[in-house]
Amino acid sequence: MSRGASNGRPMRTREAILPDAEQVHVLIAAYSGDGTLLPRSLAEICENIRDFVVLEYGGRIIGCGALHLYGPHLAEIRSITVDPKRQSGGGGKRLVKALLSQAEKHNVTCVCLFTRIPEFFSRMGFTIASHQDLPDKIHKDCYKCPRLHYCDEVAMIRGDVPRFAILPAPINWLKIEA
Predict the structure, then answer these.
(1) What are the tens digits of pLDDT across the range 38-86?
(2) Alpha-carbon distance 3 to 6, whole Å?
(3) What CA–CA distances, in Å, run from 78 to 43, 65, 84, 163?
(4) The CA-based dihedral angle spanning residues 71, 76, 74, 128, taken in that order and rounded to the nearest 10 degrees
(5) Which terminus of the chain is more solvent-facing, meaning fewer CB atoms within 10 Å of its CB: N or C?
(6) pLDDT band for position 143 (cuts 50, 70, 90)
(7) Greater confidence, 176 or 172?
(8) Is 81:27 a contact under the CB 8 Å cutoff?
(9) Are 31 and 37 spatial neighbours (Cβ–Cβ below 8 Å)?
C-alpha cells in the first residue's frame, strides 16, 4: 500500500467545516504548548473555520492549515501542522498547495508565513523576507507574542513583497518597542 493511501482511501485535502473545529483545535494545541504554533482557542477556530483546510487520511483528519487574508496584497499561511505519526508522507506539501490555491483564487499577490523549518517551505517556492516587510502580520499577531523581542521564526514570502499595509499599528506599539 502506498504512503498516500489507507484502507483504499487516499490522502486528500478539503475545506474545513464547523464540525472539524474540535479536531483542528486538538492538532494545533499539540504544537502550541512548546511555542511551535501560536495557541488558538476553540472559539477562535470556530470563528475562522472558513480559513482552514484539513488533511484527511483513512477518513480521519491528520493535518490542518489556514490562509488568513489581509487584502489583495497579502495572505498568511498559519497554523499548519500534520499529526507527528503521519509526517514525512507528503501531507504538509498537500496542505501548502491547497492553501496556495486558495490564495490564487483570491488574486493575492504575496503569501507569507513564519516558520522554524524554512528548508521545507523554500522547496515550495518561498524565499526569506524581513519581518519588517510584513507590517500587517506584525501589527496583527507579533506584538502580542511572548517572543516579540527574541523571535526565532524566519519570515518567508512567495510573490511580491507588499508595498503597503492595511492594518494600523497597535495603540500600544511604541510602548512595546521601547
Answers:
(1) 889 999 999 999 999 999 998 899 999 999 999 999 999 999 999 888 8
(2) 8
(3) 17, 6, 17, 21
(4) 170
(5) C
(6) low
(7) 172
(8) yes
(9) yes
